[in-house]
TrEMBL record:
EC number: 5.1.3.2
Record-annotated NAD-dependent epimerase/dehydratase domain positions: 5-245
InterPro entries xrefs: Epimerase_deHydtase (IPR001509), Lipid_A_modif_metabolic_enz (IPR050177), NAD(P)-bd_dom_sf (IPR036291)
Protein name, entry field: UDP-glucose 4-epimerase
Length: 328
């Protein structure tokens, strides 16, 4: 584990969990985050735990220079995250997800950063020809959203597919499954969290394309995955891409609703037939298990239970607050 780790976007949904794991591993953790979603409270919590929090924009060269000073490793999470958020402001997503990401890579390489972890997504697989057959890391990437296209572009540069971008630090790309679960910077615009919230609140839930597949990963396990990568030997993790999740945690939307209904006896579900969905994929996760020994500890039913418990305890007085989603 490098002594000092810079986590861009470290006050975000996944970022705060990454910071907790790295602190537990004994790392000196620094965060660069613009607090785009009003996470001042998360930043304060991180600072109280011993994280050096730098409030700044990853697009700002001066902010990047300050953040990178003395860093041995970078975990690059800062991004406009999600299909809807990127589609809502393509210019901003390009500036952050491409231009700023490339600048972080350039400057990390010049600064001699020894480990670079890039947060990518299983959405890169898009709509597979046969979603009944799980895809692994060697499968064709078929991004169908601007968000996934941008992730694929950065992956290709880091993994050597784009030689025209200049030197890169030793990098590992993590294709996270769809995230769920309770975290310091909560999100209710993610499928498991959203469905659980709506049904727990006894609302109508409209489901489009209930037959389409997606893999899922608890946000705490996403943090553990980053810690595992940074704790692995250089020759094991550098230059590699890993799907991060469990092969038995692929679900259709109907499966999710059925799992929620076993714990939440409220709400009404309406299924809307849709034969075309841009994303439909099942993912295999054997590589991350075999190479890194990483196995997620949580299952979707665990996440459903904790979201319902958090709502029951009043931890989110207004779970529809704009702070809890990435688009307004």
């Amino acid at each position: 584990m490098p002594d000092r780790v810079l986590v861009t976007g470290g006050a975000g949904y996944i970022g705060a969990m990454v910071c907790a794991e790295l602190l537990d591993a004994g790392a000196d953790v620094r965060v660069l985050d613009s607090l785009l979603h009003g996470q001042q409270d998360v930043a304060q919590q991180l600072a109280a735990q011993g994280v050096e929090v730098q409030v700044g924009d990853v697009r700002d060269p001066a902010a990047r220079a300050r953040a990178l000073e003395g860093a041995g490793a970078v975990v690059h999470l800062a991004a406009i995250v999600g299909d809807h958020a990127c589609a809502a402001d393509p210019a901003l997503s390009g500036a952050v997800n491409l231009d700023a990401a490339n600048a972080v890579i350039d400057e990390a390489a010049r600064a001699g950063v020894r480990r670079f972890v890039f947060a990518s997504t299983c959405s890169n697989y898009g709509r597979m020809a046969d979603p009944e057959v799980p895809v692994d890391e060697d499968a064709e990437l078929r991004p169908v959203s601007l968000y996934a296209e941008q992730k694929v572009a950065i992956e290709r540069r880091l993994l050597g597919g784009d030689r025209g971008g200049g030197p890169v630090p030793p990098a590992t790309c993590l294709r996270f499954a769809t995230i769920y679960g309770v975290a310091p910077r909560m999100r209710f615009d993610l499928t498991v969290n959203e469905f659980t919230r709506d049904l727990w609140l006894d609302r109508d839930l409209e489901i489009f394309g209930e037959q389409f597949w997606r893999p899922y990963l608890h946000v705490a396990d996403a943090g553990r995955a980053v810690r595992t990568v940074l704790g692995a030997p250089d020759d094991v993790a550098a230059g590699e891409v890993f799907n991060v999740g469990r092969s038995d945690e692929n679900y259709t939307k109907r499966h999710l609703v059925e799992a929620i209904a076993r714990q939440v006896a409220a709400g009404r579900v309406h299924y809307v037939q849709r034969d075309e969905d841009p994303r439909d994929y099942r993912v295999a996760f054997e590589k991350v298990h075999a190479v890194l020994g990483f196995v997620p500890e949580h299952r979707v039913p665990d996440g459903i239970a904790e979201v319902a418990e958090a709502l029951a305890e009043g931890r989110f007085p207004d779970p529809f607050d704009v702070r809890y989603r990435n688009t307004v």
